[in-house]
Amino acid sequence: MAAQEGNTSFIPNFSLPQDHTSSPSFNFSYGDYDLPLYEDEDMTKDMTFFTAKIVIGVALAGIMLVCGVGNFMFIVALARCKKLRNLTNMLIANLAISDFLVATVCCPFEMDYYVVRQLSWKHGHMLCASVNYLRTVSLYVSTNALLAIAIDRYLAIVHPLKPRMNYHTASIIIALVWIMSILIAIPSAYFTRETVLLIAKSQEKIFCGQVWSVDQHLYYKSYFLFIFGVEFVCPVVTMAVCYARISKELWFKEVPGFQTEQIRKRLRCRRKTVVVLVCILTAYVLCWAPFYSFTIIRDFFPMVFVKEKHYLTAFYVVECIAMSNSIINTVCFVTVKNNTMKYFKKMMLLHWRPSHHRAKSSTELDLKTSDMPVTEEVDCIRLK
């Protein structure tokens, strides 16, 4: 989900219990506490919050359905069909695994927190920190995997004579993607807290999210700027440069010699693949740019929102746009580009066959997969 970042959850207009209000242990301008607190009103009861709740509920349900089912099918197909195990699909598998974990582990808890209990956490501190941490790791894994795919395509098309990435190198890159994501997401778990908040008529809600103390606001800003640069600006710029060079190579460069039908088919397939990848990059920017922009304004220019009573609704809309990126990735990479439905359907048909036909059919599945397009590249030409 591809998820949402752990430091951007919001709480409605709640107030802290009276024995905490005099303590400077929380800074409401940095981290998750960032809404004006009105003791006489429960914002979870008004129409704007109700609208936001419906929007976030639909988004979470879509993620659980599309990313949960779609990525599960791709993971099973990849594990079962040897012909699917090319380098590009190894990188795509990272997207599938991270989005599948978020859809099956994080989204049910978030549905309960945001929609059912209306911003009140009832599952303990350990799960609170774990859910925030897992969805943050998923975002970074998705970003780094998209970057690795872009670089792989750049080397294959712009520098075809240079040695291609082999499986050993790809395995190292995949390990680095996960290790880097796991390490830089640690603060999202370390600073996650459960905090009891009072709303109107002495009702209590338990807030789950990151809390940075007043004396740590400079560290929070530095950490956010680091994440913004390393996990958004640099990857987007690098991917844009890679795809610009690839586009120049495929559309604006004359191919020397006589173009056979095989060469023209290869060119068409490469162009089609690049168009899909550029669309995925565009969707990533359109989904996450509003999210990061909203966070920057909230944390660095808090006076813009300090008097806005209902900007929680605006955040929900921005958050839903960001979370929808995982659905787009699943549809483009998993369901469409790899013909996962065809593989999965064939495996299901083999599963229900009589047992004496199963062994032969299972072997045929691996032998005959070359007749079924794995990706546009593999179907047309192996870019190795």
Automatic annotation (TrEMBL):
Q: Which InterPro entries match?
A: GPCR_Rhodpsn (IPR000276), GPCR_Rhodpsn_7TM (IPR017452)
Domain G-protein coupled receptors family 1 profile as annotated: residue spans: 70-333
> Which Pfam families does this UniProt record tie to the protein?
7tm_1
Which keywords accompany this UniProt record?
Cell membrane, Disulfide bond, G-protein coupled receptor, Glycoprotein, Membrane, Receptor, Transducer, Transmembrane, Transmembrane helix
- List the GO cellular component terms: plasma membrane
Membrane-spanning ranges: 54-79, 91-111, 131-151, 172-191, 223-244, 274-294, 314-336
Which membrane topology term applies here? Multi-pass membrane protein
- GO molecular function annotations of the record: neuropeptide receptor activity
Protein location: Cell membrane
Cited Gene3D superfamilies: Rhodopsin 7-helix transmembrane proteins
Family in the record = Belongs to the G-protein coupled receptor 1 family.
This chain's protein is named: Prokineticin receptor 2 isoform X1
Q: Which organism is it from?
A: Erinaceus europaeus (Western European hedgehog)
